[in-house]
Amino acid sequence: xxxxxxxxxxxxxxxxxxxxxxxxxxxxxxxxxxxxxxxxxxxxxxxxxxxxxxxxxxxxxxxxxxxxxxxxxxxxxxxxxxxxxxxxxxxxxxxxxxxxxxxxxxxxxxxxxxxxxxxxxxxxxxxxxxxxxxxxxxxxxxxxxxxxxxxxxxxxxxxxxxxxxxxxxxxxxxxxxxxxxxxxxxxxxxxxxxxxxxxxxxxxxxxxxxxxxxxxxxxxxxxxxxxxxxxxxxxxxxxxxxxxxxxxxxxxxxxxxxxxxxxxxxxxxxxxxxxxxxxxxxxxxxxxxxxxxxxxxxxxxxxxxxxxxxxxxxxxxxxxxxxxxxxxxxxxxxxxxxxxxxxxxxxxxxxxxxxxxxxxxxxxxxxxxxxxxxxxxxxxxxxxxxxxxxxxxxxxxxxxxxxxxxxxxxxxxxxxxxxxxx
RNA sequence: GCGGUUGUGGCGAAGUGGUUAACGCACCGGAUUGUGAUUCCGGCACUCGUGGGUUCAAUUCCCAUCAGCCGCCCCA
Length: 422
Fold this sequence. Notes:
Blueprint: H1 14-34, E1 37-38, E2 44-46, H2 47-54, H3 59-63, E3 66-69, E4 75-78, H4 83-92, E5 103-112, E6 124-133, H5 138-155, E7 160-166, H6 170-184, H7 193-201, H8 216-219, H9 230-245, E8 251-252, E9 264-272, E10 282-288, H10 292-295, E11 303-309, H11 310-319, E12 332-336, H12 339-354, E13 359-361, H13 368-377, E14 382-386, H14 388-392, E15 395-400, E16 406-410, H15 414-421
Parallel strand pairs: 1-5, 7-8, 12-13, 12-14
Antiparallel strand pairs: 2-4, 3-4, 5-6, 6-11, 7-9, 9-10, 10-11, 14-15, 15-16
Helix pairs in contact: 1-5, 2-4, 5-9
The chain binds one RNA strand through helix 3, strand 6, strand 10, strand 11 and helix 11.
């Protein structure tokens, strides 16, 4: 019986994990500049939190949650996204009372959705997300969008398309909702089963349906932009103005509807063009959720955020052939010959490492030639050769791999010598 | 949940109803008793995802199952 990795998950092996570390570091640096602070919440929560927070008309809640009962009979769910958890923590820790508002948080961590795996879609995947709670200033919307665009830009991605829309405030949404129902209801039987469900629960999402995309009623459906009240219109205009001021290019797409129920006013997505993506074109999605904190039991608090997938980012980097500036290789590799030299290698390696050098040596009894090959493979800058001859004079032979030059250095000075060469 | 496609050594990849499963790369050893290239020589799959069936005989045919990849739905 062989064990296998669970479906839709992956091991991230060293070659890849270096990229992950680089990207995670970039996230921390970027968020620090924008003054967003990291929050770490559990990977599971009460099931009810997601049902209420994400919205029970969503696919996520209806068919994609990893839900289980613990031994105490509590229903728990592996988090399918990060916003609900963050908002729960905001409420539970009374962050609305913190001195600095809005509260600006970010997170990086695994999310879980039970889906058929395919390109750009895993059952466990990692999201980087940002949430700003406590301000209804359109400048925050622009800041959050700007942060996400900066992230991709600083990693070197191009051909990104930022799409924004406004779903309006409660009043605008309601008016639009009624208009949509009025528009589709007489002929709803011509639509797919999903859309017939959507008519009552969330008619907005009919516009998002790929199956019925070509139906004539789609093209003539009332646009949300025509139903925005004055507040929502002004708000959306300001967001656009700020984006333009920041030299961030975007398109307004009135059919952009985010799949989660909690969004209102600003919604946005970052898409990528080009071959190699199959069905996946959305790298990042986000929007404003002014009612969510209240829904989850907190005081009325506006909020906005986004989430993006590191896996999809890596795909994008791959497709655009962008190599991250990753440092690799050892400062030195110790090659020993003979029992005596082998015997002093633990002490020697430990001493070098204690002084901050990245060094390694042989542990499987390789012949000298094989040790040299290993040093070469592992991109050691120097090889330290230690045999009976050197040991007899308390020296060590050091060879610079790039030039082939070598010289003897007193054994007890070798660490300083290498450091002086860096 | 639905559909397509694939599943042979660490990786890539041939192959056939029948005594020993090509080849390439990588790796290990030797030629070269203390030096990373190249070359040459040698080594490296009781086994062809798993289970069952057909057959005198199956990696090769059939069924099931699992998994990967891709698409639909939906999303990050």
